[in-house]
Amino acid sequence: MLPYGRQSIDESDVAAVTAALHSDWLTTGPEVDRFEAAIAERAGVEHAVSVTSGTSALHVAYAAAGIEPGDEIVTTPLTFVATAATAALLGAKVVFADVDPATGNLDPAAAEAAVTDRTKVVSGVDFAGVPVDGAAFRDLAERKGILFLEDAAHSIGSTQDGRPVGSLADLTTFSFFPTKNLTTAEGGAVVTADADLAARARSFKNHGLVRDKAQQRYPEEGPWHQEVHAFGLNYRLPDVLSALGTNQLARLDAFVARRAEVKAAYDEALADLEGVQLPAAPEGAAPAWHLYPLRVPAERRREIFESLRAQGIGVQVNYIPAYWHPVFEDLGYQRGMCPVAEDYYSREISLPMFPGLTDENVEQVITAVRTAVAG
């Protein structure tokens, strides 16, 4: 079965991990610092905080933003549930707003309509690797006195108007899961240009520990002394995985280029299929295509999906609208809230998209799609 996503690991990655294993540090060591510096440079900001997953990156980012019970966040339902769940775990009310029918990204106008005086964060998701409208969301955030968080789990390596994803929002979160644009096996990061947000993120991901004596309440306790002023968790990414990430980051441009080639091949071969809609990006966006979200007639989606699986193409669907999950249903959320997102979901099938796809693999996918759509 040809999967919809797969990591790309070569001998240089293996060598980087092996070197870390032979070092004196398996965690909280120099490879973490090196990886964070490289991520910050790629994102075009001063601060990067590595964490154990894209989900923990979101949790850390919301904590850094000061989310507390009674606050609201506005976000898209067309995302993995973690975008909303991590805010809910901090006590926030999640307010879902609808998406742009062309890209599947959070619609700035719909998001603005959902903002109230209790909103603290608006969270856009770069669906499939296409950056959200950063200018519109930054303007919204500044006018409303809230923070703009970009869930860039799909989009490290993407740019908008020449600016890298990571520099567009107050807080940006990355995921380094194996199917993503680069991998640390499990891992993620929070990046920001704001030193205070970075400090709060770094504290939360390390139990909230305060080791700086100038900030401690009881600094004379002894040289061993450390304090916790606010609760945090252990979301530390180890050196072994950081070493893999640094090496993967050096290969990111090649990964992005190959994804673009696969996207172009799919576009050319599938454009004439009746009832099929190809993924699009707005002017100025240069996506690192994490997904290829093909849209097919809703009434035939399952039939086409099952045909592709039967032909050995491991397609996926991204995503079940977040508020359809029983955990949100039990909180009173109802289907029908965001009809554009629900329509997008009803027609979406993610085709295989990863750098290791050969030209032969791409042709295999194209042939299978054309067979499945023809019925």
Automatic annotation (TrEMBL):
Keywords: Pyridoxal phosphate
Top-level taxon of origin: Bacteria
Alphabetized InterPro entries for the sequence: DegT/StrS_aminotransferase (IPR000653), PseC (IPR020026), PyrdxlP-dep_Trfase (IPR015424), PyrdxlP-dep_Trfase_major (IPR015421), PyrdxlP-dep_Trfase_small (IPR015422)
Cofactors demanded by this protein: pyridoxal 5'-phosphate
Gene Ontology biological process: polysaccharide biosynthetic process
Membrane-crossing residue ranges in chain numbering: none
Record: active site: 180 (proton acceptor)
Keyword GTP-binding on entry: no
Residues found modified as N6-(pyridoxal phosphate)lysine: 180
GO molecular function list: pyridoxal phosphate binding; transaminase activity
Statement: the UniProt record of this protein carries the keyword DNA damage: no
Pfam families: DegT_DnrJ_EryC1
Gene3D superfamilies, per the entry: Aspartate Aminotransferase, domain 1, Type I PLP-dependent aspartate aminotransferase-like (Major domain)
Family under the similarity heading: Belongs to the DegT/DnrJ/EryC1 family.
Protein name: UDP-4-amino-4, 6-dideoxy-N-acetyl-beta-L-altrosamine transaminase
Organism encoding this protein: Brachybacterium aquaticum
